[in-house]
Amino acid sequence: GKVNDVEFVFKTKSGGTGHGLFYSHVIEQLEDKYALTKVLDITERKRAEEALKASENKFLSAFRSSPTAITITRIQDGKFLEVNESACQLFGYSHAELIGHTSLELGIIDAEARQQNIDRLKEKGKVRNLESHVFTRSGEKRIILLSIEALKMDGENCAIATLIDITERKR
User: Fold this and answer.
1) Which residues pair with 145 in a beta bridge?
2) What pLDDT is recorded for position 125?
3) 20 to 30 A Cα–Cα from 148, which one of 14, 97, 110, 156?
4) Which of helix, strand or coil describes residue 61?
5) pLDDT per residue over 110-138, tens digit each?
6) How far from chain centre, in Å, is Cα 165?
7) Distance of CA 170 to CAs 47, 68, 128, 166, Å?
């Protein structure tokens, strides 16, 4: 009796392809049956979705493969939303041990330093190459160059941070 939201690919006059959405409902009028049909061209929307997906994949690839420690945290409570492998190595925790926890809970940074970093971020919109320190899982103090930038993710205020370990250079 009806078909809703069926995606399909079609050929254009120029020989290219497009994307459409198909809707159809059977209606009866007197003793005759008719198909009331609507077709929407969603080609531009599909192209935009594909471009966004390609962009996200580029970012994700750069994020994961970076030799620099990168974290994404929620500003409100400091919970790690995402970390790369380099951050795991710097802190001495696995990805699963970091996600959903805060740097305060894990003893990576103290409350005063975190608050100063958040205040700087709110005041200037970003933090660049701030010499700071973090603590590893084993309690070792590591000196870092910290850069932070604010971003929105899923409607939440977040921060993306890069941490470059300069401990050996400082020694």
Assistant:
1) 131, 164
2) 86
3) 97
4) helix
5) 999 999 999 999 898 899 999 999 999 99
6) 24
7) 49, 17, 18, 6
Place of tokens 């925790």: 93
CA 43 – CA 155 distance, rounded (Å): 27
Tokens of 115: 């608050």
Determine contact, residues 166/147, Cβ cutoff 8 Å: no
Contact status, residue 163 vs residue 68, Cβ threshold 8 Å: yes
pTM: 0.74
Instruction: Report phi then psi at 108, rounded to 5.
Output: -75, -35
CA 154 to chain centre: 8
The C-alpha atoms of residue 57 and residue 54 are separated, in whole angstroms, by 5
Number of CB atoms found within 10 A of residue 170's CB: 10
Q: Which helix (H) or strand (E) holds 144?
A: strand 141-153
